[in-house]
Every structure is written in C-alpha cells, then in structure tokens.
Design a protein that fits this description.
With 198 residues, the chain is mainly alpha-helical. It has a single domain, classed as Four Helix Bundle (Hemerythrin (Met), subunit A). The chain is 52% helix and 7% strand. Strands 2-3-4 form a 3-stranded mixed sheet. Strands 1-5 form a two-stranded antiparallel sheet. Strand 3 and strand 4 form a beta hairpin. Helix 4 packs antiparallel against helix 8. The chain starts with 17 loop residues before the first helix and ends in a 15-residue tail after the last strand.
C-alpha cells in the first residue's frame, strides 16, 4: 500500500511550515521516501559531527548534537499523536515546546554515535508503523498546531523536517570542521516542528 502513496494523496493546502517540509522531500512514493531518509542518516559524516557536536555556527543556534536529538524527539511526539489519531481518540492535538525540550535534553552529555543510532531506530520504527496502515488509515486527519493534517502528509512532514535540519548540519556546520566557531551555550529556538532557528 505505502509504495503507491505519494504527495498527490495529500488533500488540501498545507500551512507553513508543513508545506515547507513536504516540499523538501523529492517526489517519490512515501515508502521510498522513508527508506531514503534512513540512508541520509547513514551518510552523515559522523567524524565532523563528533568534532562539532557542541559548536554553534552562530550564538543562540542549536548545536549538531541538539539538532540530532531534536529530530528524534519531534518524530517520537508526532508518532505518538499519530497513533492517537489512528485509534480514534477525540480532540487529539499534537503540540509541544521544542525550545524547552532542547534546553532540557542534555545533548552535550551524550555521544553522537548513540544519538544517531537512536534516531535511525526511531525512523525505522516510524517506517514500520506506516507500512502497517490501510488506505483508510492513511487518509485520516488529526490536528497539529491547530491545523488539520492527514496521516500521509504527516509522513512527508516527518521526513522533510529531518531534511531541513540535515541541510543545516551540512551547509552550516560541515564547513566549520577544523575552524574556530561559537562555543556551546544556551540555545534558542521556536516551537515544535515550526522551528527554523537552528
């Protein structure tokens, strides 16, 4: 089923930043998009990220370690909300404060390889869940930050949210490898998947 589902199955107009995230995913079936998103994680240059784990390319921006943990945290929360929608829980609204979660996450105390391994496992679990869904379930809708979002759209949002943050790592942090950058301190960011501050 998932191999036949693509962006054409997304109904209605997605608000910012959800449309931004969906647009970051290339036009391919959702099943393949999940597979490729896992490959993108495996292809990260771990040595550079380890070196830069607690670095900020600008004061107040999230570090690479915080970014990796944020991607996984966001996906876990979105999937918990997804399950509530799929199981018919009334009045379910997916919302959380990403800034507070990053500040309380303690990413600087964790190993990059373990955070990346965890993120890959989270993505595999999300992919596995989506592969179990029926056509009817894929078209269900829930509320995410007051906006109605379909299960199909949420899958692309999860993948695109990762791509948004991996681009920041590749474009803002990789060039800093071997160079002096801002030392880690308290970060600042927006709310949930709408965050673009890193």
């Amino acid at each position: 089923m998932l191999s036949t589902i693509d962006k054409n199955n997304i109904q209605g107009i997605l608000p910012y930043p959800f449309k931004q995230y969906v647009d970051m995913v290339i036009d391919e079936p959702l099943d393949r998009a999940f597979t490729n998103s896992i490959l993108d994680l495996w292809l990260l240059e771990l040595d550079k990220i380890v070196t830069l784990k607690d670095t900020r390319y600008e004061a107040g921006k999230w570090t690479p370690g915080e970014i990796l943990q944020h991607i996984g945290d966001t996906e876990r929360i979105l999937c918990a909300g997804l399950l509530r929608v799929l199981r018919g829980e009334p009045g379910c609204n997916i919302v959380f404060d990403a800034k507070e979660m990053v500040l309380g996450g303690g990413a600087s105390e964790k190993r990059v390889d373990k955070m990346l391994e965890d993120l890959i496992n989270v993505r595999k679990a999300t992919h596995s869940l989506y592969r179990t869904l029926s056509e009817k379930e894929l078209q269900k809708e829930g509320i995410c930050w007051i906006h109605p979002v379909s299960v199909v759209a949420l899958g692309y949002i999860i993948i695109g949210h990762q791509e948004h943050h991996l681009r920041i790592i590749r474009e803002k942090y990789y060039p800093l490898a071997g160079k002096k950058a801002v030392v880690a301190g308290p970060g600042s960011a927006g709310m949930g998947v709408a965050n673009t501050a890193s």
